[in-house]
Batch of 2 targets.
Target 1
Amino acid sequence: MERAQQRAAAGAEAPVPPEPAETALELLVHGVGGTTPERMLDDPRTVRITGDDTAAVFRRAADADAEDRPSGQRAEPVPEAYVWCNLTSGNGTRALWLLLLPFMVVNLAHWMRPTAHARPRTVRLYGLLVRLAGLTLTVLLVAAACEVALDLAAWQCAGTRACAARHSWLGFLSPAAGGWWSAPGRRLALAALVPAALTALLWYLSHRTWSAYESQQPMSQQPVSPDPEPEESGAGGPLGRPGFWYGRRLVARLRAAHTAAGLLTVAAAVATPAAAFDRRPGGPAALDVLGWSLHAALVALAAVVVAVVCRRGRSEHRLDRRLDRHLVRRLPLGALLLLLLTAVYAGWPRPPWQSAGRLAGDTTFGGIALAQGLLVVLLAVTAHTLYRTAPDPRAALRGQGGPAVATLACALGGVMSGGVAQRVADWMDGTGGSIPGPPVLLTWQASVIPPLLLLLLVLGGRLAGRAWRLARAERATVRGDYPDEPEDPERTRRIARTRAMATLTDDAPLVVGVTSLATLLLGAAALAGALTGHRTPARAARGAHPLVQGAAETAQALGSWLVGLGFVLLVTWGRRAYKDASARRTIGILWDVGTFWPRAAHPFAPPCYAERAVPDLTWRMATWTRATGGRLVLSGHSQGSVLAAAAAWQLTPAVRRRVALLTYGSPLTRLYGRWFPAHFGPAALGALHRDVDCWRNLHRLTDPIGGPVALPGDSGPAVDRAPLKDPLAYGRTARHPLPAPILGHSDYQADPAFAEERARLLARLHPDLPAPRPGRQAQGSAGRSSA
């Protein structure tokens, strides 16, 4: 009711041209976290117009047949709500997506490359390096599962009498039992079912989510060119390319390669101990030859996997419906067959063989850490080369956002792997120290977590101090925005504090840059410490100054505890999300931000909801304008504005002439323009402004997410309206007898400016009053654009 009164008041304050005869439509797209169609349409009675239980378009029940009734009596366009929240926060299986967090983060790094000109090979090299970093994450996760199942459980605990006695479920594997499974090779072969099942689960999630979310074909468009360069833009900018939202072929190819890589990792973990035993002097020659043959086959198939990952990436400039069926089917099957052969080979009787010490975990995890570090450094050099071709002052970290995020993805993978290994080792060993425990490198990596957290704490204190100083300075500005209101110091402080806190979003590049650089340096130090041969940092510090020794012991103990706590929190959060819809929705918010982009670097990342949402919006707008000939306002809030922009880029020019874009609380420039400059930089958003018939953006100074589009040149004022007042009233007034809330990022429709701007956009879409282009508008329409 209050919103309707405000809209009516807005209409009284700002007269606009009368509505034309044809039907007008407002297509609303919500933001992160999701909502209900009843809330979006401000009506408890809604009906589904088109769509399914996953994503659909709704209307008020009274507007279901609005096109069949005269529209001249309507003061507002017919509202429709596109609800897509079930794409990211639906049933309980979404809790399994927590396992995929490092994969999601490395996939983001692919899309964070800087804008480039005339550097097609460098662009391809950037994508290749990110795909290889994603492959190392798959190997790292499966290697962590092998460490837990094969090394800690089957090799160490089951092979030690004291440990096996404490865990009766391992009794049949103990050599003391004398059973068939007590041989070390057979124990390893049986334990290999755990990491193999994890690999199969990742394959299943990737295949199932692609079928449910990303198999929607976009509207057919003509390819830009038969073989365009990677940095060329399609019609309407990079996101307007015909095949941008349809990566079926690449996802299937990468899924096959990563599945094979996971199975090969398990096969190597099973075959290596047996082959090492067979190479001893006096060992059986036949088994030794078989071991070398299996290792040669493992290396050859691993080379094929790397070659598949290195092949050319996405085909965005055309709608590629083909699949590499032979590759997709045969590569995982070949790896599975090789795993079965290694299991048979390891299980062959070797009477003198006994398990002792640890498996080759230090070599495995050390090699993975070294490979990830080298890939990140090469990625940083490549990103710097691209940035120099077209420097963008808005780009986060001067084009180093992608390498920084890739570093964080590797760090997340390391923390998850170390946390699982540490907790399982503590659980199995108790306090007796009966087994050697996890690899040395994992202990060193855990020990660098406390210094990293201390550095972040210092950085957070500095940012908090800056926000406090900004809040004090902002008080005078707040009083200037409400000159005719009596002074209320507490109200002024609250508004100023909200504005200052909203600016902390702009410090995200600093936090990410410091965190990633510190992580890279500390990770290198941990790898160097593990290579020295010292079991723990505390032992390495023996003989040093007492302060150094105490710091090393504290870091080691606290790091082990923090890694374990992180693992426990991950399991707890996942269990709660599986049962609790509200917790599942919270996880969905995280995926709303992280899974907008297609899976281009890692096939096991959570699914891209935009590959379903963007075709939905495009098809709806194209079919409705074709059927009615009416005008349409595409109205997007927060993340919905990003979906709206992506859908507008996919429209044909004939449809764009009937569509206006209204964005509010939009992160298009503030977040996406900074972190994804190649796709949302000034050039791309300028192309969107030229392609869409008219565009208006609303923002508030109290909004921590949304901000101005701020296009360079004369076209900027035509898009951004001056910041909206928030709160709408400083104190109690006749129009606001109760204190007006500080809205921040929410409820932009409550501001009278929303209805005013929507009405003006519809008026500009009138066929008898074509909207002027940006160049002429800056000269002849200054009054309207500065409203």
Target 2
Amino acid sequence: MTVLKTSMRNFFAHKGRMALSAIAVLLSVAFVCGTLVFTDTMDTTFDRLFSVTASDVTVAPKDAKSDETPQNGVPLSLPASALKRVTAADGVKSAEGSVSSMNVTVVDSHNDNMGSTTGAPTIAGNWTNNDLRSMEISSGHAPRGPDEAMVDADTADKHHLKMGDELRTIAQTGDFTARIVGIATFKVTNPGAAVVYFDTPTAQRELLGTTGRFTQINVNAAVGVSDEQLKRNVVQTLGAGTYKFQTAKENADENRAGVGEFMNVIKYAMLGFAGIAFLVGIFLIINTFSMLVAQRTREIGLMRAIGSSRGQVNRSVLVEALLLGFVGSILGVGAGVGIAIGLMKLMGAAGMDLSTRDLTVKATTPVVGLLLGVIVTVLAAYLPARRAGKVSPMAALRDAGTPADRRAGLVRALIGLVLTGAGAAALYAAATAKKASDGSLVLGAGIVLTLIGFVVIGPLLAGGVVRLISAVLLRAFGPVGRLAERNALRNPRRTGATGAALMIGLALVACLSVVGSSMVASATSELDKSVGADFIVEGNQRIVPKAEQAMEHSPGLAHVTRYKMLDATLTSPDGRTKEWPVTAADPSYAQDLRRATTQGTLSAAYGKDAMSVGTDYAKKYGVHLGDTLTVAFKGGDTAKLKVAAITDDATAIDQGAHYMSIATMEKYVPADRIPPNVIMFAKAKEGQEKQAYAALKKSLKPYPQYQVRDQTDYKQELKDQIGQLLNMVYGLLALAIIVAVLGVVNTLALSVVERTREIGLMRAIGLSRRQLRRMIRLESVVIALFGALLGLGLGMGWGATAQKLLALEGLGVLDIPWPTIIGVFLGSALVGLFAALIPAFRAGRMNVLNAIATD
């Protein structure tokens, strides 16, 4: 009870100092809990949608997959005769045929794409009774003829559609127009898909290219018949192995699996950044309790002198940490719910709708938040608590500290040097690895070891680095600058821990900046070296025939190159098989891509019954120039093709591609199985590049789902995409940097309290308030720049090593983004100035006499 009372008294006596540490715990816990609530809410949204929309039993083509469109762009279908047979099966209450396609683009009268910008699909199909499970017609009526359509209310609101507006639907089989005669509202949350309905004959004809077929049959059970029994009855009627049969639960599970990987990527990535924030927060908490223990050394001595044991002193500090962790975690759990709602609103602005009605806070979420916050806080406070317990009563009463501090510092330095050396060796091994897959594991080990090594060795580095920064920066400030330098050097362990908190976030920023910049520079170099085409056309869907025809008839072009991909099974001369996609292109592709070969020429691969293979495949399967491969095309025949070229896989473009001519593919694959173009290339006539570029854009204007780019556009697009990804990562890392800033603020605030008497004496002998505030600001800047130098140096080392691995994948240019690095370094100085505002202000307000009288 005495320990608890003492801890409570100390906790509330230093509540201002504890507040910043509590904020660090709060932010870290909030990010974890916010991530869990956000992803759980997304799971709930999709689960409810999939559960509601699934009929008791569904019958689909045997090879159909819920999240995949066949390579020819037309959904797989089954005959209407199957619907008649299912209707007659035992236990069937009702059955109806459904038509649905996600390989469509819908545009309004202004040619604006109605699809989502977040990657959610555009779904076109027929209106059925099954749709009434999840939707209701809120305006107008369902489509009744070939020129009528109905859209979902969310899409209508986003794109300002109204009754009577005309929509054009672009499908693989052609495009057609219809006017809006109805608007349907979702009864459950729609995560962002755009949905368009037609009558059944129109959907069959325009989306499937034929009538009398469906993509799915929805079957509902009669009263008293279970889903499993109904499935058995339908299977018995149609025959096992003829189609794909699923109960409502199986159908919902398959749909969940389709989005599960995406959800896990978001979840674990965000939790990873939360872990970084926790790691940074540990340094803040260690510093806080180390300084609090140091300031209470005499108090601890008195406690020991009157009978308190070492364990009681230790427990007293740990109880304070427990209180700090509990308070911070409780607040963090509540803030986490707020963060989740904020993320939902942000996703809504981006096009993915998540309703707060589906907000899901599982019982495990607050438990996880509390356990993480409390455990991390207590563990971080353990070392200061242990040091407090080791101080002898007489030494404490003399403020002598721990006699083993010097020996512990030497041991720490030795451990840090060993870890750093081991990490450097691992980074060197990664940089010299022969395979990227092998080197990536070693790179991970090197990053972890060097990070821990720098953290441990921080106090040793502090002396030299702070002196270097001071020589460059502080000498101009005269005696005040020298005082700031001495203050930063007074306690190297404290300076090292404070700088290390900032170092972690900035190291990751520098590493990712180097990797991102190198990727852009490498890809740009590869484009300049390898791509001969003037224009590249691609989109988020394969290119429909009408867009292909528009491109081919565009004026000013010397040639147009088609580029298709089809799954196949390759059998090497020694009988080994491998599923591998093959690429079919026009012979002009050899001009559009100057692909290096180790044997043969790429143009030879476009000959009759010929193909090329990549060096990786050739090496693994023992294939040589002139060998014959057996190629079994998916949906087609089996061919014997001669290897006419072996292409070099040391490239970032088309790495591992196996080329053949489109004529060869057409010889062995039926016309209705030939896939549409993945991408198309074009070369302008000599001297007509600008005119051809403008004409090509005009020709493809009716198809907004495709982008026309010249090489300059393509490079800029690549740069923008990587830049957007890095900005998102930097935004997540900002949490760790905020926690690090709190650490600097806390360290300075506690340092000011620790030096109260000293500050009073300095003021008494003539130091002005302005000089005092400047001294504290300069000390803060030095600590921030110390952390920045370590972090940026470490991060650039990581990034350079990672680029060596990327070079094995064809990205061979190392590019250091010096403007970013310099900007981050200068920004760190501003961070230091900002962190010192409150401590400097408080120090300047001290009463000189009261400060001198402080014991």
